[in-house]
Amino acid sequence: MKKLSLIIIALVFVCTGSSAQTYKVTLPATPTIVDLFLAAAKYDKCETELVRKYAANSVKAQKLDRNTKRIIDKKNGYLEVTIGSNEDYHAVESCYWKMNNGNLLIAITHQEYQETTTLHFYEYNKASKTLKVVEKPFSLGLGGKAAEVHYELPRYGKTIVAETYDLMTDNGNPYRWKITWNGSKFDVKHVY
Fold it and tell me: Are 108 and 44 in contact (CB under 8 A)?
């Protein structure tokens, strides 16, 4: 039990974005989801070099093995990379939304086999060419309950889907949330 607690503490420490940091970045005039993801992933402690290589397309499509999935949808601003199989995998999703102030809000999820999904946000300011870490811009209102959370970023639309599992009762029934971006903030709705 002590070893498990240390592992959990280590994961929480390792998989957190740099709080309230702003970074200078160099991106094209019209950045794609790949450009935005790679800029943010550089500062996101959960992202591995292998995932960045797959996302950057530096690994040729023919070299992808059967346990690797890569979706790069530049038109809809969505990226997904999954490496591994059902027993041992590493998955990342990223998307972005336009903000009312003209900036872009970038979201990155990270999950390893059946672990809670981490979700980090970054704001890209085109005028100042900066990328700022954004503290989680919404709350599911779990009130400190021990819960496992899984996030699914949208490939289409503006709604993140979250499922939470109560670790205390372990009844296997998730609570589902829809978290919709409206241009300036997220609206959180408990679905069931």
Answer: yes
